[in-house]
Fold this sequence. Notes:
This protein is mainly alpha-helical.
Amino acid sequence: MxxxxxxxxxxxxxxxxxxxxxxxxxxxxxxxxxxTLMGNGAIVMVVLxxxxxxxxxxxxxxxxxxxxxxxxxxxxxxxxxGFLVELQTISFNGCMxxxxxxxxxxxxxxxxxxxxxxxxxxxxxxxxRYTLIMRKDICILMAIAAWSMAFFHALxxxxxxxxxxxxxxxxxxxxxxxxKPLLKLACGSIHLNLMLLSIVTSCVVMSPFIFILFSYFxxxxxxxxxxxxxxxxxxxxxxCGSHLTVVALVYIPVLxxxxxxxxxxxxxxxxxITLIYSAVTPVLNPFIYTLRNKEVKMTLRVIFGRKIxxxx
Length: 312
């Protein structure tokens, strides 16, 4: 191995297509990125500024919006750069940093969605004890736990990937530094990496997902046997509908992409799924929550209406 040349940088193939569509595609994804920043940034600002939204559900929603901003920022700008340059390169260290944050933010989001499902379960099935169970210090501890677990999960994958020998070729069939296309380029054995990707990542992804399913199973059971009024059902579905929609948007591409740890799957399929997860889902999340949530819509109107009025 000593005679082999260590790779110092990688070449990202990206999403390049015909030149006549390249700048159109660039414009579309730039608009999606700007919409992600504006939409999620507005939610974070409103949750912080409005005392009426200092509740567990909105605290976790603010965390989710922050994650969407970071997630898009570590993937989309680099992808946009690929449309403008002939040869898109990324240093080895830069690639590992992007890999770390990609899994760190993605893992935190999955765990956070599980915590939000628990919040909905307590609010609907145990409303009298809601303020006691979901008090401020408990919510902060749960958020810290979500960020910490995802941090160590991402750190594990990054360390395992850093220690792999890369001696060429250095062309990544993706628009970001993801694990599976990187493993294709490794010169040494990748069995341990694949095992960790299969077992640990499956646990990190599937545990919150299973927890979400059980939470909504109990919610539906409670509604069937305890709640008879139509208004009670409507209130329950209005609070759960947004969360379930986001869960579907996040988990469907993730389950397709990472539950199959083989490195021989189609790179185009991997890129398409990652693109949905990185560019489309973050821009939809704020619209899903604001369009279905009266408190958020009312606060947005008051805050931004006041600012527009003051400006004029």
